[in-house]
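User: Please check token order:
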Amino acid sequence: KYVDLSNRGLTSVPEDIAPDVTHLYLNDNDITRIRETDFNDKYLNLADLRLQVNDITSIKSGCFKGTIIKLLNLNSNKLTSIPDLHEVSNTLTGLNLISNEITTITFDELSYLTKLTFLYLSNNHLTTLPDIAQFMPSLNKLRLKENPLDCCCSNV
């Protein structure tokens, strides 16, 4: 079941979303943060979550518990680090973090996301990157354009 709440001027995730939603589009709103209670154990079939073009600065740990998110789009927000996605580490295959304000990524922030097939990090403020290929065997698309990377890293 698709629910499209794009471009509605929302400042937070609404409480009244259908519990059987599989694809939820909350893009082009004014959402500033994702609270632990926004998705936690509410949407057991949620596989595709689009939150691009918002003003999200924080995503609480544990907020995706009970979901089966495969694709998470956080493009064009104000995140400064990779959110804690442990609850969806067994299902998440795509993560879009293009055009955020991420300056560093540590091994621990990504190492558990072993099912990712694509990771988009273009247009952030990254200067270094852990050796992603070593711990992400499924990854076949990594986008890093428009980052001030200190290159000649063997892992890029």
